[in-house]
Amino acid sequence: MGDNDLIRQAGLRVTAARVAIMRTVREGDHLDVEAVHRSVLDRVGQVSLQAVYDSLHALHQAGLLRKIEPMGSPARYEARVGDNHHHLVCRRCGAMTDVDCATGLAPCLVPVDAAGFVVDEADVTYWGVYPSCQR
What we know:
Blueprint: H1 3-9, H2 16-27, E1 31-32, H3 33-44, H4 49-61, E2 66-68, E3 76-78, E4 86-90, E5 96-99, E6 125-128
Parallel strand pairs: 4-6
Antiparallel strand pairs: 1-3, 2-3, 4-5
Helix pairs in contact: 2-3, 2-4, 3-4
């Protein structure tokens, strides 16, 4: 299914900017808003940073994009949604990569005491130093 169809099925209006954002995030690697904005400008021409923020928010709320907010870093976006994977972040260079669930089925990590909550998602960020940054 194409991005136009995904956007339409999510109940959102299909715009050139939203399609460009979906493609940019899908092709990118955990991009922040600034990187998404630069790429969308290259793809469709004039689009404001605020329009990119608004569209990212709408696409995230619709479940088409995932927003990752590592502590001390700007929010980043990815198109891998629905599988409750986790992330590795390098403390030195800030690079981020996906890592599959630690154990079992989603939500992957069941709390010792869920305090009555029905847990449907776990958001785990592993912090460390990439091999290339260890030198």
